[in-house]
Specification:
binds nicotinamide-adenine-dinucleotide, alpha/beta
Length: about 475
């Protein structure tokens, strides 16, 4: 064991030396690695789809939409914008520094650690890596042990496409994670739970290492009464898709619960039942295109939420589950007790509690009584309500009339606030996350103002 630790230390030392030699800083090196990732995705697409099916039961269309397709898009953007991202930006200095030139120069942070999770095991491993490489860092990636097929594909195949002197993939679970955290890093980028996020942050504090923590929580959706039946159908279609249709609700920005006005509830529920039936049929368990719960532990966690006697009576649709195939039917609950686990913990599965309110505007107080979520979704056409939602709530992202689409936008920063996370990434924000913006100033020796240096006299200051 000790020998393994020493090996890790030695490997990291070599990576650091390689980084210091300037190997990763050249634009050509960055481009070659990003292209390597592109080729990896292309040449291994079939194996990637197989691995995602094996780990999570994801259909290849879902796998392409949420993982491979998004990564391709991010790589195209990084390659096309790299020169612009890497360029220094001229800055102005105050008059006191007359005859000067200043610029803001992005520089890589050094040796960075990326710890990833299992629900989008490919995308959440490689998306931060794209930013780290584009910014010119040496990278160690630890994928999640809970998606073993993807983890082993990343460990065994990806190195064939990358510069292994400065990019390493290390497989393992919490024990390996803890070993990695004992090392000194120039940045730790973590995706996962708040519980482990806290472990990461305290380990990072030892070396004052900056962290990005992409965490989770309970993302609310608010459904205002939409008078047009077409709008209502579009809203519910998107709500159902965002709740059940992305990794069976095991997504950090999935809708966790839905807030609806009491009077509006019966028509919402009736329509939802019809629409879920249309999407999932009469026997959803037999639908092999639907993602499964990741493992028995998470299956039982969800089962416990649902079989809590206080909660069971609030199930109004679905509720069936099959432990052997790790399947849980899309399920709707109405007004489960607010103190039950389903309303206090992140659900991370295909269970949708609907909470009824007397007035939809009460949703603002409801949301504000809980910790700041990663995302808020509000389906409304009421301009006044929209403005209130924007100015009176706080969340990583706020989307009106849709859900989850913000993840696919590389023009928007993706990240949480408060307990839902620290920092942001995607597109240029990923480059920024893995860069230090160095302030550089240069002066001519020609002249200086008298007031910069003592002794001072009684000249009148007119600045
Ligand atoms: P987790 O926190 O248990 O594990 C995440 C990673 O941390 C894994 O690689 C794991 O091996 C590692 N790890 C676990 N214990 C560790 C330790 N003691 N030291 C070092 N590393 C350790 O994550 P989870 O619970 O499996 O993931 C689900 C959570 O992730 C949910 O809360 C979800 O909302 C969140 N999530 C967030 C995002 C986002 O982008 N914000 C995306 C996906 C998931």
């Amino acid at each position: 064991m000790e020998e393994k630790d020493n090996n890790l230390e030695r490997e990291l030392l070599v990576m650091r030396e390689c980084f210091r030699s300037g190997r990763t800083k050249e634009a050509d090196w960055r481009r070659a690695q990003l292209k390597g990732l592109q080729v990896f995705l292309k040449e291994n697409e079939v194996d990637i789809f197989k691995a995602l099916k094996q780990d999570l039961g994801k259909h290849y269309v879902e796998a392409f939409r949420d993982e491979v397709g998004l990564l391709r898009k991010s790589l195209n953007l990084a390659l096309s914008d790299l020169k612009k991202w890497m360029s220094s930006k001229e800055a102005k200095l105050p008059i006191m520094a007359v005859l000067s030139y200043a610029e803001v120069v992005p520089e890589p942070l050094g040796l960075v650690l990326v710890i990833s999770t299992w629900n989008f095991p490919l995308a959440l491993s490689l998306e931060p890596m794209i930013g780290a490489i584009a910014a010119g860092n040496a990278v160690v990636l630890k994928p999640s042990e809970l998606a073993p097929a993807i983890s082993s594909l990343l460990v065994n195949t990806l190195p064939n496409y990358l510069d292994n002197k400065v990019i390493k993939i290390i497989e393992g679970g919490p024990a390996i994670g803890e070993k990695l955290l004992q090392q000194k890093w120039d940045k730790i980028f973590f995706t996962g739970s708040g519980r482990v996020g806290r472990i990461i942050m305290s380990a990072a504090a030892k070396h004052l290492t900056p962290v990005t923590l992409e965490l989770g929580g309970k993302c609310p959706a608010v459904l205002d009464s939409l008078s047009w039946s077409r709008d209502k159908e579009a809203a519910l279609n998107r709500i159902i898709g965002a709740k059940y249709g992305s990794c069976a609700g095991q997504a950090c920005i999935s809708i966790d619960y839905l807030l609806v006005e009491k009077a509006y509830l019966p028509s919402v529920v009736e329509l939802m039942k019809v629409m879920i039936k249309k999407m999932y049929g009469d026997n959803p368990k037999e639908l092999h295109s639907v993602a499964r719960i990741i493992n028995k532990h998470h299956f039982l966690r969800l089962k416990n939420m649902l079989t809590d006697p206080m909660v069971q009576k609030s199930i109004i649709y679905g509720g069936s589950m099959d432990e052997d195939s790790l399947f849980i039917e899309p399920t709707i609950l109405v007004d489960p007790p607010l103190e039950s686990a389903i309303m206090t913990e992140e659900i991370f599965g295909p269970l949708l509690p609907i909470i009824t309110l007397d007035n939809i505007e009460d949703s603002i107080d409801f949301i504000n009584s809980k910790s700041k979520p990663l995302a808020i979704y509000a389906f409304t056409k009421n301009e006044k309500f929209r403005k209130r939602m924007l100015s009176e709530t706080s969340s990583g992202s706020l989307v009106f009339n849709d859900a989850i689409i913000q993840f696919a936008a590389d023009t928007l920063p993706f990240g949480g606030i408060g307990e839902s996370g620290v920092g942001k990434y995607h597109g240029k924000f990923s480059f920024d996350t893995f860069s230090h913006y160095k302030a550089v100033a240069r002066r001519s020796f020609l002249t200086d103002f008298w007031f910069r240096f003592p002794p001072w006299n009684n000249h009148k200051l007119e600045l």
